[in-house]
Write a structure and sequence with these properties.
The protein has 153 residues and is mainly α. The chain has one domain. The chain is built from eight helices and no strands. The structure holds zinc ion. Zinc ion binds next to helix 7.
Length: 153
């Protein structure tokens, strides 16, 4: 999903939880931040993949290539690698869930991630892409073998 919509849901959903379910303000803020900041893993991936740590280059690559990738026929899109995102996968969520028993902050972070991931999956489904790419690192790593690098786009 586009970043601006993540920001919007990242404000509306925790706001709703705060006002209607009376969750603590710290929980609402954590959920809100987590639901937006989860996408920092896109930068980590871009930096590792392109060997370029400059965040502005990462942002400009995303701005340039996102419309191209979206417009690409799904057959052509399948020729390219997918991003390897360390927060968009079930292992990360399981760790957060386990840590949530030690400290609620991790649980709120997980809630924020869920708020982010659900629309991500809906968008993937809409453009006829496998939702596994935002659930399983193993799937992405296996799938990326012998594909053209999407960062060269
Ligand atoms: Zn995302």
């Amino acid at each position: 999903m586009e970043f601006k919509y993540h920001v919007l849901t990242g404000i509306l959903v925790p706001g709703f939880l705060y006002f209607y379910f009376d969750i603590p303000i710290l929980a609402a803020v954590t959920i809100s931040l987590a639901s937006v900041l989860i996408d920092i893993d896109h930068y980590f991936w871009y930096a590792a993949e392109s060997k370029d740590l400059n965040p502005f280059n990462a942002i400009s690559w995303y701005i340039r290539s996102s419309p191209k990738i979206k417009k690409m026929p799904s057959k052509k899109r399948k020729e390219y690698t997918k991003g390897v995102f360390i927060f968009h996968n079930w292992i990360c969520w399981s760790i957060l869930l386990a840590l949530g028993f030690l400290n609620q902050i991790f649980f709120y972070t997980l809630v924020g991630f869920v708020i982010h991931i659900i629309p991500d999956l809906v968008v993937l489904k809409k453009i006829d892409e496998s939702i596994l790419q935002k659930i399983s690192l193993g799937y992405v790593l296996k799938r990326n073998k012998n594909k053209k690098r999407i960062t060269d786009l």
